[in-house]
């Protein structure tokens, strides 16, 4: 059995050929023969018919009942939607849209589309759900959910009521997709039980009217929060307790991180008597060893009675006491093209302690600040199984790495001031016939559909693999609901509920038409991390390659009715091979390129834990040309004009020595300056007279009183504002040490150990055509 990430049995391996070893300098390669630089005209290959969303919709309230007549016509009309437009990937080069990629819209009535859960909070890999597992298997696409349940929201309806209306059978919270049979009865959209409408629910607090339960906020919003009554509490809400465990060894003091931590704590301290004196207390220590395990055990005993948050700061490999670790990294094997060992933990001490913490409502967040190997594969378990977070700052040094210090300061400020949910649990419910297969993220699975989250924060993402246990033939739609029960820092017990409704379809063309390529990529990344740890890295790499081959093979053999030469894909999956290649070249999965083991493990942690938007920037960074920014098409945010340059392909071919290019890679932003860059950009944005004057370690854009400076700083600031962490800015020249990191993100180009995008497409085509 060869490795596959989609949960279907497939036979016959697809081996990716190794490219010949060849150095790639800063040249500007010409296109391969037959690979057109301009977009080819859309091909007219025929596909199985597919229909658009229904036009008519009238009923008392939103719910699955009205979907029956409106969705029954799927696949009966002959018009092909844009998502199924056939694309020959070997001919059409410029496949990236000019701006952000929007997820597909579920084929629902317009009224339901407007109130469906926002895709940034809750989305599915397939926005059209197959009727049967066999149909899903035939599509060779994974079915799963991606959630950002505690995301910071600008608008969140909050309901205070003594009665929270739920299904008496499956305990689903009432939502926009239930059906009101009349004013006194409603049908659950998950188990279809008919429930009575409570008397209190007849009154609408928003309109102050009686007798219109279908207009209540709970039935008009797919995301809503309830103030929970006492029956949702196992014990009285505990005070928010925060405990800090600090490495104060000689190495830790030398890094200078204690000064930053203490300054940050002084800023957010709640009592004037609070005094932080740790840097002075341990300033002259000569202790070089670290006993992290015993410190964690002591901290656990302190927090056990109340629960809370444990913040652990570590700067070296712990070598004393329980949980002591030894170095497992061979620096000579960092660039190995073979198997990468030691991705799994060396001991179960940290996992066991994390499970004990979870049982006592304690979450552990780990801040690792070290230039040496610390065995993050073992240490990260303390956060993974206690619903904590991992922060990693390699080469942290207060004197020699000011950019790293700024990043740590900004991250710590966000960490200390962001919203937090304590004693949380999250349950995911779905329509009868669907079932949860696997969860991805940081948590402890308490039961098949219940996650234990001692802490939940607005920067955490989750993924869920789904399967179809029973045929959905009689259903026109299915629903998914995530309910997050937590205690706020003010001691309120709250429930945040997200509900998503998706149509059910019975043809492969419909399934492909609703494929969400970014959600699929994000789910496959999480699955590949698990495969790397439980099996091997090569297994995971083969499985990712097979995922793209198998889905395009299914499309070619089962959806296209006229076979044509080339590598054909539906428009909605046109970026799938590119994203798979990007994953293969990502720090977590790449081979043949020198990668420190802790760096690789941290990248895997990020892929499993971060929300999809940030994961996609890690996988496929965004490249922009910024030496010619204008206000044309700019966004107007808070009376600021934010330029919107076009996204460029990640290829050296797109760079120009006369330009300046900004690469947003999620946690880091590169500003590459061409050797012959426009002198006006150098003087008016960077404040230097010529290229030679650009500093080697420039991390800040000077605040100059020029339109060009204001536009560039506005754009960089806007990129940073869209994420909770602080991306470091590196201004780099050809001679910069960081140029190699910048070039490694040029995914479409050949490297010494990996195929170019065009070569990868040829390999995929060869396998698809077998």
TrEMBL record:
Subcellular location, principal? cytoplasm
Q: Where is this region: Disordered?
A: 29-56
Q: Where is the Sec23/Sec24 trunk domain?
A: 278-416
**What residue stretches are annotated with the Gelsolin-like domain?**
643-715
Show where the Zinc finger Sec23/Sec24-type domain sits.
164-200
Q: Does the keyword Transport apply?
A: yes
GO BP terms: namely: COPII-coated vesicle cargo loading; intracellular protein transport
- Give the Sec23/Sec24 beta-sandwich domain ranges: 421-505
Q: Which UniProt keywords apply?
A: Cytoplasmic vesicle, Protein transport, Transport
Q: Which terms in the Gene Ontology molecular function aspect does this entry carry? A: SNARE binding; zinc ion binding
Q: Where is the composition biased (Polar residues)?
A: 35-56
Annotated Sec23/Sec24 helical domain residues? 516-616
What is the recorded membrane topology of this protein?
Peripheral membrane protein
Q: Which residues cross the membrane?
A: none
Highest taxon of the lineage? Eukaryota
Which Gene3D superfamilies is this protein grouped with? beta-sandwich domain of Sec23/24, Sec23/Sec24 helical domain, Severin, von Willebrand factor, type A domain, Zn-finger domain of Sec23/24
User: Which locations, inside or outside the cell, does it occupy?
Assistant: Cytoplasm, Cytosol; Cytoplasmic vesicle, COPII-coated vesicle membrane; Endoplasmic reticulum membrane
GO cellular component terms given for this protein: COPII vesicle coat; cytosol; endoplasmic reticulum exit site; endoplasmic reticulum membrane
Query: So what family is this one in?
Result: Belongs to the SEC23/SEC24 family. SEC24 subfamily.
Q: What is this protein called?
A: SEC24 homolog A, COPII coat complex component
Q: What is the lineage of its organism?
A: Eukaryota, Metazoa, Chordata, Craniata, Vertebrata
């Amino acid at each position: 059995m060869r490795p596959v990430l989609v949960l279907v049995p497939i036979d016959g391996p697809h081996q990716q050929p190794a490219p010949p070893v060849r150095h790639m300098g800063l040249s500007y390669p010409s296109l391969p023969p037959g690979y057109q630089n301009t977009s080819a005209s859309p091909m007219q290959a025929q596909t199985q018919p597919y229909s658009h969303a229904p036009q008519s919709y009238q009923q008392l309230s939103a719910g699955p009942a009205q979907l029956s007549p409106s969705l029954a016509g799927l696949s009966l009309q002959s018009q092909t939607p844009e998502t199924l437009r056939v694309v020959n990937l070997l001919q059409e080069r410029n496949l990236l849209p000019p701006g952000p990629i929007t997820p597909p819209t579920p084929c629902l009535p317009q009224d339901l589309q407007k109130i469906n859960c926002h895709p940034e909070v809750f989305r599915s890999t397939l926005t059209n759900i197959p009727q049967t597992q066999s149909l899903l298997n035939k599509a060779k696409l994974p079915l799963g959910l991606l959630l950002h349940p505690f995301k910071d929201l600008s608008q969140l309806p909050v309901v205070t009521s003594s009665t929270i209306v739920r299904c008496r059978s499956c305990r689903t919270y009432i939502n926009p997709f239930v059906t009101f049979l009349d004013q006194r009865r409603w049908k659950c959209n998950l188990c279809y039980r008919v429930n009575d409408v409570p008397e209190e629910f007849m009154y609408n607090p928003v309109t102050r009217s009686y007798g219109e339960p279908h207009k209540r906020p709970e039935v008009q919003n797919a995301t809503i929060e309830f103030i929970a009554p006492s029956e949702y509490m196992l014990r009285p809400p505990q005070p928010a307790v925060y405990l800090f465990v600090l490495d104060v060894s000689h190495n830790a003091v030398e890094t200078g991180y204690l000064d930053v931590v203490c300054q940050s704590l002084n800023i957010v301290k709640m009592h004037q008597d609070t005094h932080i004196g740790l840097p002075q207390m341990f300033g002259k220590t000569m202790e070089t060893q670290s006993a992290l395990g015993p410190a964690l055990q002591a901290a656990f005993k302190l927090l056990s009675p109340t629960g809370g948050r444990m913040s652990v700061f570590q700067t070296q490999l712990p070598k004393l006491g329980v949980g002591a670790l030894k170095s497992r990294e061979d620096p000579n094997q960092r660039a190995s093209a073979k198997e990468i060992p030691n991705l799994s933990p060396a001991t179960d001490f940290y996992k066991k302690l994390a499970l004990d913490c979870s049982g006592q409502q304690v979450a552990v967040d780990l801040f690792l600040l070290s230039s040496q190997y610390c065995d993050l594969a073992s240490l990260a378990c303390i956060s993974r199984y206690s619903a904590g977070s991992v922060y990693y700052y390699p080469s942290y040094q207060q004197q020699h790495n000011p950019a790293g210090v700024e990043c740590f300061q900004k991250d710590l400020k966000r960490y200390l001031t962001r919203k937090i949910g304590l004693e949380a649990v999250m349950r995911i419910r779905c329509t009868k016939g669907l079932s949860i297969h696997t969860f991805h993220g940081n948590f402890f699975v308490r039961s098949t559909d219940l996650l234990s989250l001692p802490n939940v924060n607005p920067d955490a993402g989750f993924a869920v693999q789904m399967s179809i246990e029973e045929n959905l033939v009689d259903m026109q739609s299915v629903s998914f609901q995530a309910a997050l029960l937590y205690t706020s820092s003010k001691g309120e017990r709250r429930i945040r509920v997200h509900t998503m409704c998706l149509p059910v379809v019975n043809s492969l063309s419909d399934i492909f038409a609703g494929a969400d390529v970014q959600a699929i990529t994000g789910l496959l990344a999480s699955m590949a991390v698990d495969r790397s740890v439980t099996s091997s890295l090569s297994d995971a790499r083969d499985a990712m390659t097979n995922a793209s081959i198998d889905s395009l093979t299914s499309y070619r053999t089962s959806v296209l009715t006229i076979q044509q030469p080339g590598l054909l894909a539906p428009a909605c999956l046109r970026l799938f091979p590119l994203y798979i290649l990007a994953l293969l070249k990502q720090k977590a999965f790449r081979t043949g390129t020198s990668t420190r083991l802790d760096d690789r493990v941290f990248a895997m942690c990020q892929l499993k834990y971060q929300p999809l938007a940030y994961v996609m920037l890690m996988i496929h960074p965004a490249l922009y040309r910024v030496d010619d920014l204008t206000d044309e098409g700019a966004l107007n945010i808070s009376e600021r004009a934010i330029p919107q340059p076009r996204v460029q392909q990640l290829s050296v071919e797109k760079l120009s020595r006369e330009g300046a290019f900004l690469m947003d890679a999620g946690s880091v932003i590169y500003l590459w300056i061409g050797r012959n860059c426009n002198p006006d950009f150098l003087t008016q944005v960077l404040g230097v007279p010529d290229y030679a004057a650009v500093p080697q370690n420039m991390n800040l854009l000077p605040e100059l009183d020029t339109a060009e400076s204001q536009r560039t700083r506005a754009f960089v600031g806007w990129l940073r504002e869209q994420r909770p962490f602080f991306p470091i800015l590196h201004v780099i020249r050809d001679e910069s040490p960081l140029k190699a990191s910048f070039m490694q993100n040029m995914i479409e180009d050949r490297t010494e150990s990996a195929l170019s995008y065009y070569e990868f497409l040829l390999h995929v085509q060869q396998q698809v055509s077998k």
